Amino acid sequence: MAEFTMPSLGADMDEGTLLEWLVGPGDLVHKGDPVAVIETAKSTIEVECFETGTLTKLLVEPGTIVPVGTPLALIGSTAEKAAEPEKAGKPLKPRTPEKVRKPGGPTEAEKAKERRPVRHAPGRTEAAALSTPSESAPVPVPSVSAAGRHGHMEAGPLVRHLAEHGGVDLETLHGTGTGGRVTRTDVEKAAAARATARPPRVKATPLARRLASELGVDLATVTGTGRDSAVRAADVRRAAPGPVAAPEHVGATSGRPSAVRGSTAGPSEDRAAAMRQAIAGLMTRANRDIPHYYLSTTVDMAAATDWLHEHNRRSPVGERLLPAALLLKAAALAAREVPELNGFWADDRFTAGEGVHLGVAVSLRGGGLVAPALHHADALALPELMASLKDLVTRARAGRLRGSEVSDSTITVTNLGDQGVETVFGVIYPPQVALVGFGRVVERPWAVDGLLGVRPVVTATLSADHRATDGAVGARYLTEVARLLKNPEQL
Amino acid sequence: MSPAHHTRPKKAPGTPKPTKTAANKAATSQRSSKTEIPAAGRGTVHRMDLLEAMLRIRRFEERCVELYSAATIRGFVHLYIGEEAVAVGVCEALTPEDAVVSTYREHGHALARGIPAEAVMAEMYGRTTGCSGGRGGSMHLFDASRRFYGGNAIVAGGLPLAAGLALADRMRERTNVTCCFFGDGAFAEGEFHETANLAALWKLPVLLVCENNLYAMGTALERHEAQTDLAMRAASYGMVAWAVDGMDVEAVEQAARRAVEGIRAGTGPHFLELRTYRFRAHSMYDPDRYRDKAEIEQWKDRDPISLLTDRMRANGELDDEDVARIEQRITTEIDHAVEAAEQAPEEPVENLLHHVTSSPAEGAS
Amino acid sequence: MGGDGTHEAKTTYREAIREALREALRSDDRVFLMGEDVGRYGGCFGVSLGLLEEFGPERVRDTPLSESGFVGAGIGAALAGMRPIVEIMTVNFSLLALDQILNNAATLLHMSGGQLPVPLVIRMTTGAGRQLAAQHSHSLEGWYAHIPGIRVLAPATLEDARHMLAPALADPDPVLIFEHGSLYNVSGELLPPAAPVDLDHAAIRRRGTDISLITYGGSLPKALAAADELAAEGISAEVIDLRTLRPLDDAAITASVARTHRAVVIDEAWRTGSLAAEVSARIAEGSFYELDAPVERVCSAEVPMPYARRLEEAALPQTADIVAAAHRAVD
Lengths: 491, 365, 331
Description:
The complex is a heterotrimer. Chain A is of the alpha+beta class. Helices cover 33% and strands 21% of the residues of chain A. Chain A is built from 14 helices and 21 strands. Chain A has helices spanning 78-87, 108-115, 126-131, 157-166, 184-197, 206-215, 233-239, 247-253, 268-289, 302-314, 323-337, 382-398, 403-407, 471-486, and strands at 2-5, 15-21, 28-29, 34-39, 44-48, 53-58, 64-67, 71-77, 261-262, 292-300, 343-346, 349-352, 358-360, 362-363, 369-370, 373-374, 401-402, 411-415, 434-438, 442-448, 451-465. In chain A, strand 20 and strand 21 (451-465) form a beta hairpin. The termini of chain B are far apart. In chain B, helix 3 (40-69) crosses helix 14, helix 4 packs parallel to helix 11 and helix 6 packs across helix 14. The model of chain B is unreliable at 1-35 (pLDDT under 50). In chain B, 45% of the residues lie in helices and 11% in strands. A seven-stranded mixed sheet of chain B has the order 1-8-9-5-4-2-3, sandwiched between helices. Chain B is of the alpha/beta class. Chain C has helices at residues 13-27, 51-55, 67-79, 91-94, 98-105, 108-111, 141-145, 158-163, 165-170, 220-232, 250-260, 275-286, 309-315, 319-330, and strands at residues 11-12, 31-35, 60-62, 83-90, 121-126, 151-153, 175-180, 187-188, 203-206, 211-215, 237-241, 244-246, 263-270, 296-300. In chain C, helix 10 links the parallel strand 10 (211-215) and strand 11 (237-241). In chain C, helix 11 (250-260) crosses helix 12. Chain C is of the alpha/beta class. Chain C is 37% helix and 20% strand. Chain C contains 14 helices and 14 strands. Chains in contact: A-C, B-C. Chains B and C meet through strand 3, helix 7 and helix 8 of B and helix 3, helix 5 and helix 6 of C. Chain A: Its cofactor is (R)-lipoate. Chain A: Belongs to the 2-oxoacid dehydrogenase family. Chain A: It is an enzyme of class 2 (transferase). Chain A: Residues 154-191, 203-240 form the Peripheral subunit-binding (PSBD) domain.
């Protein structure tokens, strides 16, 4: 039995409002499926689960604010699910292997094997098989043999315990033991990776944390002045907008925050205001803490534009590309080439991102801004990238982003071309170290090979964190962007 | 086990043997008619009372063994069986105004002091009707109304308390005596010696009653005391001290009366070493490996109850019918005590913190 | 106006206690004082000087050196209707009476099902600072504060020295009073109490807004000195004198931390398992969301108290340590 918990969607997120369940008890969920809609101070997000199994119980009602880490639902493993109907005498038999029994009937060990739900049916996932338990037609499956055992079903109790404890889904592990068996080391490695993947928690005093919650201040945006740079109450008060109540007053009127309390989600204006505050805080911190340097280059887009026209001419309307797709792909590929700009600055050092997750700044209709991630944008073919971008923008504006999309970006692109401007000098999203800006593609007089002509050009800018890189690195990046846009077939 | 040890019962004196003759004389000369040992005419009735008091203790504790074995009562249960003459004889010499401080082997003292069997049994059951409200159990029986200051389960821990009770009586000019029971094991504890010194120094009205049953738990007297003549050692503090046959209830009573009389007369603390023996193990957990069966049997020949009944039968003061009648009365009393205890209410858990301090609200901090 | 200088008259902590004893002995004939050298000698620290002459040897009793014996006798006398005040020379010696204090004084009421309250007061000297080395200098009051069934007091001011004894004697349960040895010579003008001294509440010795210095007994003067130094630096420190170490005044601690959001706990005992640890834990339990810095503790070094002056000073909490701890919390 695994718990689906309120995820931490950012360093500054202490709690979230469960707005809506997208699944119900008894539903089969897969790792990565969106299962609930969560609201934070920044946005409304669809959150995915990290288990595959059957949702057995919802623990939190919609409209409830709960701290990060609070169990929201219980997900039974597929094994548990499979065992249940069998115990209840439901027909799982069709999916048990036909076996030639030895004379004298099956041994106890064999019976036990038979009771074990069978996995890896050819051409279908186990989950799919389980989702149609009433299906009566026998499914051809390989017979279970010791040599053919796979996956977590063969994991021993210690491994299972460790996996549960470390929040590791055995299904996702590739076993390195004999016969593909998942070993203790496999689980421990996975658990360690999982642990380090969590965003670092902002160091803040309990009072600061409480005040931040009360005053709607995003702790991630506040510079701590306490020991080990911990955020203290005064830091929060400084960061808070408007007049701040005297400390005595705050102490007297606010009780201890309860672990779970009713929703205090206000009308949309409040949310917009909260988002404005959050952006204000984050950008203030970025501008204060990050020594930006700015580079700019203007790129001849003739080749790219020609390539785009040719592609779109040959494609159905629904698959046509926008120039933005090329720009984003170029930014992503260049980030792969210049990894010094793709990652995070934390604890006084740079950590390279694992993969290029391109943050795409999306302005929201009601005001405000989010920059969800296009995961592995460097690896997406242009049509895929285009489709993902459309989906991402749509969902961002509908408030249906997934948690990983909100927190995973390794470098962000802001494209204000459609807003008519030519040059963007952006502010980096901490803890990232670079922000790429694209303006509008405009026609300009342009000298090529000594001749003046009118060419479509775009101004690409780079805002980079001088703590992490120097101008030369930034120059290498922009040069790579320009090179790629001039060779669109490489995109 | 030394041969001397085996012969101890035979050497035990049948009558009080004063170790401090002058003081003894003084005490005897001041004997009042009130504390006179019952005359021959009243003797039969009195002996019958002594017998019944001893039998009550014996039968009560036998029932305890049963209940303990059935896991009805728990904790440590230290049985007094074999030592009944001490409690009955000493308490016989006390008035209701006197105070008693006892040990963890105190069922006999409590019953002899007049605490109803029902209240003692209910305490063993841990019920609210117990003489300590169920908070004490077998080792901590209390009854303030009878000036019974408990059941102290720290060997010699009750002795300083007794000195203080006596000091208060003295300072308030009351003629009460505080009687403190303790075992031979207490002689190895500092608190015994501190108290003996203090009581003698301040001439406190304390009766120090040492129940010398020859064992400090499982350690024989010779193995825990360099000098085993306990009365002599007590006398060294400058108090009257006698060694008495603790199996003969009449001898015990006689000695106790004389001591109490001396104490009330203002001659300071008196010490009685009552040579006795417990027939059963130290506690219910004790496998009793440290004693010879022969030694136990030898002492059982001098069972205080047999000793008295034999004497009374020889005098023509007791017949089978009398014994049956007494036994019946006691059986009924104990049956009733068990029944009442079983039906008695248990303390609600909400009251857990009661009696931690006198103000219940402060119990928690 | 006789010009007798009454208003300038200084009283010492020692005299304040003596005056309290005198008042108790005068007002209630059940009260008597008992302990080692309380009579002819006048008390090891001179507290009871002159009382023997005034009240006689029955009520000011010199005892043999037998802590367990005379503390137990005090318990017995209390059971029998007296109101004894037992003096133990130092807290280290009280360990010899620990059996009586824990197994009898603190326990009899409960063990007897409420039949036997023990209205006893035990006074003893505690603490270091006088180069008395490792068997006369420790601060073990925190051990006693661990025990349910007794009240533990630590008068730190002239007023408390003078006025805590009467309510302690009125308490139906055992009360232990810890007098810090370094306080006996402290002198000042003893003012009549504004209100009767109560034994349930801590006292705010100085109001402040930036940090709470929570302490008791012999560390109070150091905490007040630290507060002065901090004030000179613009840090407003509140000084809480716990006074009653059991039961602890949780409300006072919570209220102060709610005002200042930072706390330093100063306790002359060893840090490990100390009363300071208890206070810190209660702050964590009751004031967690008020805390704007980790709770700081200033305790004695974990060493049997050394004789040499330099070493003893280094082992003990000093004003500078308190100031430094406050800075760690505030800066």
